[in-house]
Design brief:
This is Transposase. The chain is an all-alpha fold and about 70 residues long. The protein has one domain. Helix content is about 70%, strand content about 0%. Helix 2 packs across helix 3.
């Protein structure tokens, strides 16, 4: 159930034209991954962000983007 929620979150980010998510998705597609594989990779990345925020005690800042 959690996997599906993360998958839908990643898919919605692509539909909402989130630039960072779209760039990551396009990079994964350029690496040769299929659509579902790229969306799952994006879902994992979107899961890693809140985890890092909790670990570091930091607030979310969309302007700070780290290269993959």
């Amino acid at each position: 159930m959690l996997k599906r929620a993360l998958f839908l979150s990643a898919f919605a980010a692509l539909k909402c034209k989130d630039r960072n998510s779209r760039a990551y998705y396009d990079r994964k597609r350029a690496e040769g991954k299929k659509h579902n594989q790229a969306v799952i990779a994006l879902a994992r990345r979107r899961c890693n962000v809140p985890f890092a925020m909790l670990r570091d005690g930091a607030l979310y800042d969309a302007t700070e983007t780290q290269p993959a």
